[in-house]
Amino acid sequence: MKKCIVCLKEIEDSASECKYCGSYQVDLDEDFLSDDYDSKSDKKTNKSEKDKAEEKKAEEKKKDDFSDLEKDEPKPYKGKVAMPPKKKNKLIPVIIAVLVIAVLGVGIWLIKSNFFEKRAVARTVKNYYKAVTEQDGELFQSIACPPEMEKYMESYIAGYQDILGNVSVSEYYKNFFLSDGSKYSDVKIVDYTEYDEDVIKSVEKEFKDYYGLDIDVSKGYSVNTEFTYAPQGESPKQGSNIMRVVKIDGKWYIYI
After folding, report:
1. For residue 237, how many other CB atoms are within 10 A of its CB?
2. 114, 155, 219, 224: which has the fewest Cβ within 10 Å?
3. Distance of alpha carbon 112 from the chain centroid
């Protein structure tokens, strides 16, 4: 039996055509039809089984390494999958800029409207009503008696010690100024009016005329207040009052 020169199936030795593929048969060297024939060099390779196994292994390795792909063709990544880079949100800088502008705008408004200054003034006013209600001489002294006035009061008390007794300035305020027993609650600040230069000078003149004190007043407010108050032994009623608040040496004081 011989093999077809095209499909390599066994056919009769005398056959001129292959009964399987129909190819016309010519006489060829038997080496050409063997499994070990090298078609590139037209030579018999005489490969051993070991050589064939190594070649097969090398071929499989090439396939595994994707060596049969074109060089410019992307190769699959072996190992961890690389994550695509995160896209930056272009809105974040815009949002930050808007927030910064908003904060700056609010800050400028607070400064121009004297927000923090008015809060300090309001706290001074409310402490006045608290000191009167609780008959707290020390609190009253702290918000109504600047250092120059404190020295004046000490001298005044010393001059009337036979009448007033040996008392401190805070005790004097408690015993002789806060003793009417009136109670204040629900104190509200209605509005503020900032003093102009002429009013400030008039306050400084009052300090000079009444107490003989040269006090530098840097700022001042007229503060309209409303409250509920109850004189001693009477029922509560609604009231209002205008308080004068001045700034001396960086601190706010009630000026009575």
Report:
1. 10
2. 155
3. 25
User: Side-chain half-sphere of 209: how many Cα atoms within 13 Å?
Assistant: 6
Say which residue the tokens 């008696």 belong to. Answer: 145
**Nearest CA to 174 among 208, 132, 116, 229?**
132
Query: Torsion angle, CA of 45/49/50/52, rounded to 10 degrees?
Result: 60
Centroid of chain to Cα 56: 65
- What mean pLDDT comes out for the span 184-188? 95
Q: Any idea which residue has 């200054």 for tokens?
A: 117
Closest to 178 (Cα-Cα) out of 229, 129, 235: 129
Structure tokens at 99: 């927030």
- Read off the amino acid at residue 196: D
- Indicate the helix (H) or strand (E) that contains 217: strand 217-230
109: left (phi over 0), alpha (psi -120 to 50) or beta: alpha
Q: Which residue has the tokens 């109504």?
A: 144
Three-class SS state of 37: strand
| Dihedral pair phi/psi, residue 192, rounded to 5° | -125, 145
